[in-house]
Amino acid sequence: MPGPLAPLVDRPSASGVFTDYDGTLAPIVDDPERAEPLPGAVDALARLARRYARVGVISGRPGAWLAARLGGRGLVLSGLYGLETVTAGEVVAPAEATRWAPVVEEVAARAESPEGPGAVVERKGLAVTLHVRTAPDRQGAAQAWAEAEAARTGLDVLVGRRSYELRPPVARDKGTALREAAAGLAAVCFAGDDRGDLVAFDALDELAGAGVAALRIGVRSPEMPPELAERADLVVDGPAGVLDLFVQLLR
Ligand SMILES: [Mg+2]
I need a surface site. Which of 9, 31, 215, 221 has the fewest CB within 10 A? Predict the structure, then answer.
């Protein structure tokens, strides 16, 4: 096959296919609990997993959440931006992260209390996310609140699509997750739609420097960060474009 997918399609047994979840498999919706993959996307991933050496989803969602929707299909699943991995149905996080659980719990409780920023609070176990998608007037307040809580507790702030996440200050992200998942492969692609995916592109840059055929796939949306488009080797339109790519990889 000619084109940017050729290194993957030509050697599936030495290739890996990786993607984010929200905005790449599932359209972005107001209520994150209602984000469902496009019809056919999960089936395509399962088929890819049977043909390619490694196929995975690297997401900001909790590992258990990913396992419930995508488990049992031979996929590599990484949750909470690389903090969690799902191994044989079990969610694993490093001790340096799990020891922050009580701190995250306390911050989550404060976020939900009258002292909180008035954002939608998503408890994710080892992280807590403040969503302002449905309350854009709370964006400044949510950011200031998250930064103040980070300064008070030592947690890190991760800025996402209309969201601020407080999480353990551990050097794990989608880039570290992708580096581990892609170890030993000759060709690797990753599809992302958001700022948090740029570190996965960094990982692909490093792999490319080491001789791996690396393909950075940017997934377009009205909120696509310009940097993602600039750094992508290939830009596709939303989850439908990703699914189309999967179909091409299965030809
Ligand atoms: Mg995303």
Answer: 31
